[in-house]
Amino acid sequence: MLNSYYLALFRPAKLFIYMKIIVFLLWMGTLSLWAIDAQSQDATINVGGYRNLTIGNFIREVESQTEYLFVYSKSEINTDDQISLSAQKLSVKQALDAISSKSDFSYLFDH
């Protein structure tokens, strides 16, 4: 009786259906991971047109508004340097480009 149940469960036609379902679920999982990665590149921040903002305050502001994490050495970056951002809403990349064009600050996105 038990053997006939397993034979009925694993017939070639049913195996093919199970394989199609598994491949479909794996494919959907992969696509959702790509969507998450693409979405994180477009993160925007509201800097409110701050004048005389320090790099350290800017980093804390970005980390609080997004899921980004900044890794840096305080001996290489002076976090007390003053920066100005005139736009209200910027993507993180636009803000970092604006800061790096006005100072010796450079950055690298790493996933």
Describe this structure as you would to a colleague:
The structure is a single chain. The protein has 111 residues and is mostly helical. Helices cover 54% and strands 9% of the residues. The protein contains 4 helices and 4 strands. The strands form 2 sheets. Strands 1-4 form a two-stranded antiparallel sheet. Strands 2-3 form a two-stranded antiparallel ribbon. The longest helix has 30 residues, at 12-41. It is rod-shaped, with a radius of gyration of 25 Å. The mean pLDDT is 78.
What is the N-to-C succession of helices and strands? HHEEHEEH
Determine Rg (CA atoms, Å): 25 Å
- End-to-end distance: 53 Å
- The number of strands is 4
Strand order of the main beta sheet, please? 1-4
- Approximate helicity band: 40-55%
In terms of structural class, how would the helical and strand content be classed?
mainly alpha
Note the total helix count.
4
Write a concise synopsis of the structure shown.
By secondary structure, the chain is mainly α.
What order do the helices and strands come in, and which of them pair?
Layout: H1 2-9, H2 12-41, E1 44-46, E2 53-54, H3 55-65, E3 82-83, E4 89-91, H4 92-102
Antiparallel strand pairs: 1-4, 2-3
